[in-house]
Design a protein that fits this description.
globular, two-stranded parallel sheet, mainly alpha, two-stranded parallel ribbon
């Protein structure tokens, strides 16, 4: 979980390049983008012709006609506006049971089809992480990734492609940041030891150490990903239907670097200072 443009897609790709690990992209949107809109998979095929997703749909018994109900279920347990209800447990048993059944079935289908022991969902929403923790079956770990305000302001100033989060002015981003970061902190208090916080800057400056840290905490072997990074090899996005445009690159090289953000001015600088204050207050 994390804010938008905080590095969740590249983190998923890094983690997913080790054996027996399957990255499914932003699973919150999988029924909308994969079953309904038939957005192109990273493998270059539409989902119903992709060897992985066509098999997942068959295994789970899902058809395009199911998409509306499935999409609404994912949205109801993930959208930022629903977080207070989720946090306070003000969700009906019937709805929470159905959400749990849908996502347990989806995760198990993805694991069976890909012969994986671990399924990675980079959906980002704190509410979804909380709902999965409470309502689906099976063990779960949550990585919370956050980013320095200056870098986030510049990332949200850029234009996006279809399906990605829209650009935000500094003060709109400030409001989004304060709310989202608060949700992340509250969710992490519930998740306790099942949640690990890292930063985008930490991942970017020392990806090997970050993956090793995640591996030691989670008990999952990411050594193959570390080997690829160590020899400057290429990473593969696998079969991601949802996520940002990075997933559509057939091969990806991750270059270790230190973020060097130029000073901000005017409203951007004011927003950055307030975002820094809130980040510190929440102890991220």
């Amino acid at each position: 979980m994390g804010t938008g443009r905080s590095g969740t897609t590249i983190l998923e790709i890094l983690l997913g390049n080790s054996p027996k690990i399957c990255g499914v992209g932003e699973a919150v949107h999988i029924f909308r983008d994969g079953l309904q809109a038939r957005k192109m998979c990273a493998c270059g095929e539409p989902p119903d012709q992709c060897p992985v997703w066509s098999a997942v749909w068959r295994d789970g018994g899902w058809a395009p006609g199911d998409a509306d109900v499935l999409c609404e279920t994912q949205k109801a347990f993930s959208w930022h506006s629903r977080f207070p209800q989720l946090f306070l447990g003000l969700i009906s048993r019937k709805s929470s049971r159905f959400f749990g059944q849908v996502n347990t079935s989806f995760i198990n289908s993805a694991a069976r089809v890909t012969s994986s022991n671990v399924v990675i969902d980079s959906s980002k929403y704190a509410g979804r992480a909380l709902a999965l923790f409470r309502y689906r079956d099976g063990p779960m770990k949550v990585i919370c990734i956050t980013r320095e305000p200056a870098g986030l302001i510049k990332a949200f100033a850029r234009q996006t492609t279809e399906g990605e989060q829209l650009p935000k002015t500094p003060f709109k981003l400030l409001a989004y940041y304060v709310y989202t970061m608060t949700c992340l902190r509250l969710a992490s208090l519930v998740l306790r030891d099942e949640c690990r916080s890292i930063t985008y800057e930490q991942l970017r400056s020392d990806p090997n150490a970050t993956l090793q840290e995640i591996g030691e905490w989670s008990g999952i072997d990411f050594s193959e990903s570390c080997k690829i990074l160590g020899c400057n090899g290429t990473l593969r996005p696998g079969h991601m239907v949802t996520g940002n445009r990075l997933r559509m690159n057939s091969s990806i090289r991750f270059k270790k670097s230190v973020s060097q953000n130029a000073p901000l001015h005017g409203s951007a600088r004011v927003a950055e200072l307030l975002m820094r204050f809130w980040r510190g207050l929440l102890r991220f």
